[in-house]
Amino acid sequence: MIRVGIIHIGSSKIRLMLAEVEDIGYFKVIDELKTPFKVCYELSKECVLCSEKLIYILSTLRTYKSLCEASGTKEIFTITTSFFNDIKDSESIISMIKLNLNLDLKILSPEEEIKFTALSVNRSLNTTNSLIVEITGTSTNLISMKNREIANWVSLPFGGINLAYTFNIADRILNSNLDESISFLKDKLNDISWLNNEFESIILVGEFAKTVVKIDKFKTHYPLELINNYELSPVGIHEIYNVIKCKDLKLRRKVEGMDLDMVDSIFSCLLIFNEIIKIASPDSIRVSNNSIREGLLYDYLYKNYDVIENNLDYSIYGILNSLNSNIPHAQHVYFLSSILFDKLKPLHRLEDKYLNILKTGAMLHDCGISINYQNHHKHSLYIILNSFINELTHKEHLMSAAIAASHRFNNYHLPLAQFSYLINKLDIDIINKIGALVKIAEGLDRSLVGVVKKLRVYFDDEKVVITVSSPSNLDVEIHQAMRGKDFFKEIYHRDLFIEKERWQN
Fold it and tell me: Which residues on neighbouring strands pair with residue 3, listed in sequence order?
């Protein structure tokens, strides 16, 4: 295990991401710092750093570097993006950072910025036929993704900060200033011929994305803390846009979920995004928790580790490793439950799209033991609901956690009222159908050493018979699995029998 630090000088903030990298190439963020830093307020003006701002940068970087070194960081990447080229005397500032702090500040090219952003999103969500949108302080990046590959991209030289101050929409919004800014945006966006392609979704990334999510969550009383794969709607974005448009800086600060560092740029970001939505007309809008920093880290991992390609597997095995969980047991429970799922399809009638839920719930069912064995099913629920699990929708996330929590023989039921925003009674029925199978599979590996080698299933209108075979004694496994017979009958309306079959190698 090593630690890697990424210091990112952005057009609105200086950020530090400190990550712990496991031997399997999995990383988790263990610390983050961000410091406000705004330059290039207007499109037409040259960016100039006064001595106070230069001292501010050096002081912030020194603090970040000290934290990295104190935590035993092996690698420190210090990056910025192309806006830094617009700062007067940028080369001398880079030299000063090198001389004073021994940090090599790298200005990423637009191509590199796009590459890392696309990579980070690819690792968090399904990007098939999607438009990635990132609105920073001084730029708007648009990336068209086809089959997880970059098809088209453009980096536009305007973002939330410079648009806000160029058209005087940072504070109270006048109709004349608004009309000017909209006209400007339409001219720029209409020049992008591929932007009106049919996109299945827009994937929004960056600080603006997270702020919009927080505002939307307060508005809807959303029950989960998750950001990755959060779903927004064009109507919802327009509602937030209208709310912010009517408020000056003072009133914006009172909006629940508002990032106070963005009060002057939030409206202009919404304005840009609203105009993009009008042209792209997506079926859905999703948010990725990843950004350029995660993309840079993934690039580092690919060069130095054998990274698991499957996004879901990467998340699951990363969680299991970081919690020192019993991976062979997790794998075996998943193996047994997936066989049961397949053989009992005529009874549960669930599509294969639920296999990701089955895998997540089965593999992570015992992860709560890392907190405490007592009530570990509840701890598993908490861990899953608060873990970064790539590609799962929030409903799938919740259903996986509920399946994991239901694996013990204690009649645990997910409180429907608490999560009614995301799931309904039909979803609860699916949770119970899959949960019953995981409960049996977990019992069939009670000794935690994978003694059940073969499993067959037979059923009729009255019963389900599971036959298991092994060169080892299976009395404990069969006894434990049969503890779930009453719940199984309640869900599948059939009596459950588990029998040992003579072992044949």
Answer: 20
224 DSSP β-pair partners = none
User: Long-range contacts of range 444-449, CB-CB < 8 Å, 24 or more positions apart?
Assistant: 444/336, 444/468, 444/477, 444/478, 444/480, 444/481, 444/498, 445/329, 445/332, 445/333, 445/336, 445/477, 446/476, 446/477, 446/480, 446/481, 447/476, 447/477, 448/326, 448/328, 448/329, 449/328
Range of the domain at 139: 124-289
Q: Is 117 inside any structural domain?
A: no
CATH of the domain at 45: 3.30.420.40
Same domain, 487 and 464: yes
Residue 455, both tokens:
């499993």
Q: Using one digit for the tens of pLDDT, what is the confidence trace for 103-127?
A: 999 999 999 999 999 999 999 998 8
Question: Structure tokens of 111?
Answer: 């191509």
Same domain membership, residue 133 and residue 242: yes
| pLDDT tens figures, 161-196 | 999 999 999 999 999 999 999 999 999 999 999 998
Burial of 2 (0-12, 13-18, 19+ CB in 10 A): middle
Cβ(166)–Cβ(160) below 8 Å: no
Q: Which of 253, 276, 304 marks a domain boundary? A: 304
Burial 213-230 (b: 16+ CB within 10 A, else e): bbbbbeeeebbbebbbbb
